[in-house]
């Protein structure tokens, strides 16, 4: 279509490929159809978007081609046309996969939780990478608790049930909330392994059996104490980090603020962190130390909580990354470089110094 931006980008590559001549193209030709003028032809071959590239053999449609977006790939394909492998089947909806997790909707949310003394509910989105990582652990935990009639692990697809998620103020994915007899009691900020989910509910019940990582019975007292120690350490670590002078110098990227901030700060080096990340507090302290040393200059340091700011994560291509912390250099609102070096103040500082000295062309 003449108005299609991708088509405009492809057009000169298409012209270049056609210019090599039929002999260089396995006696084939490269053609184009303006679908806005040839609507009947477009409908006949079921064109749904632009550009759509189709291969014809002996005048008959053969197959849709792979992604041919530069002249070299077009020429290579024409010299040896091969049908691409079929696309993988779509991933089944979580609710359609057999497990002990109870899937809630706007219709059954209250009725399913009404009889449950302890319910841990995971609010999720099907496209969310962190949700996909948590799902198998949540299923294992649900399997381990299936004989506990007063406990349940449940899940809500926020894409299909937006009203429920809005009612419980879900801002990011996954969000875990604890309910007692259908009433929301608290959030959950523990780990995302099966043992964490199981022990959380078992400890609330005061049960004499707490499952270990290997699913073997153990006394609840040591496990409860250990869980308490871990939670306390996390809380203290978070408080210490937020009181760190360097942390206060880090720009906070959120769904509400990121568009404006990225216009103001054209060069950003961002640490993305999440609630379930065991390393994020210690790594954040190192990053805060680096921020404390920084003089105002070309590169601004920032942090982003991907659980609370899913839009930022999606826009900056962080949603597909299943592990945090993740560091990215953002220029003019677009991700340019990932940092994969040592997590030490000196190494991070060295990388930032390189960013400062690079020319605009190199960036």
TrEMBL record:
Stored Pfam families: Thioredoxin
Feature: compositional bias, Polar residues: 212-222
One Gene Ontology biological process: protein folding
GO molecular function: protein disulfide isomerase activity
Superkingdom of the organism of origin: Eukaryota
Any one GO cellular component localisation term in the record: endoplasmic reticulum
Gene3D superfamilies in the record: Glutaredoxin
Region called Disordered, residue ranges: 212-241
Residue spans of biased composition, Basic and acidic residues class: 225-241
Thioredoxin domain mapped to chain residues: 1-80, 81-206, 210-357
Name the UniProt record assigns to this protein: Thioredoxin domain-containing protein
Organism: Graphocephala atropunctata
